[in-house]
Amino acid sequence: MTRWFLSFLVIVLAPVVSFGQQPVLEIQNSGGSLYLTHTVAPKESFYSLGRLYNVSPRDLASFNHVSMEKGLIIGQQLKVPLEKNNFTQSTTKSAADALVPLYHEVVQDETLYRIGVNFKNVPLSSLKKWNRLQNDNLSAGTVLIVGYLRVSKTESALAKVKFAQPVNSPGPVTVNPVKPTQAEKEVVKETPGAEIKVDSKIEQKAPSKEDPKTQQVEKPQSEAPQEMVTSNGEKVKEGFFKKDFMDQTGGGNIGSSVVATTVFKSTSGWQDEKYYCFNNDATPGSILKITIPSTGKSVYAKVLDAIPDIKQNEGVQLVLSNAAVSALGITDEKFETTISYVK
Asked: pTM of whole model > 0.85?
């Protein structure tokens, strides 16, 4: 992966990626104009951004009311227009193109119909198909695909990122009793502040192990997050998915292995104790018990997908959300854990 592309990972959108995450592109809507937000990184120009987002450099400058002659400033916020050349609400594409999913986060009391109207009258049938929705019911915070960015496979680095696949993309079928929801497959944007606070909108994504057609919307659980007390009386927030792990084992054999682990940032888990991870061996949607050998502290995390093949993840077998790492009392960037799983 090139230095340029690694720098790109920390500058896309109002969401800002940190430590090895890849972006989820969130559509903005202002007065009926759809656009993405991009923060300029070193060595970027109107021309390189034009190739990245499949937009004319002059149109990009005009949309932002800036002069191409003055160039760009590192950290400058640009709006990337979504128009007929680079925006589509069809999964049909040519062999030379790649489709990158574009997302919208549902706000309180927002309906599927209203979302369709706000994003170029996308048909409700398409919204349901892309997001595997069984009905029109939505919850605030749900993240939905509302269209696709069309880019060139040879010109845009975005074409090389393993984003969530369009629903008609081929892939092996994996049977799994607990499948990750679309909202769970979004993982991270960083916001300013002294504390680590991130929105679950950016995905550290590797090639999918499951056919998107087999995905199901997970039913909400009413159980409270789980806690354990260590031998010295210290409380550990084991997480929302402990019961799922117990159900998943079903009294069967449990295997374990010691693995090198690193961390990614996510908003999920800080309040609801829903912890997530990436692992190459476990089935997406399954639950792992993750323990620190030296302290005995454990948390339960749902597997989102395989570990993204990027430099920051070299030599590790588990990538764990920062809320889970915090619950384990770990402050190191890389550390050792024992993962327990169903054989």
From this structure: no
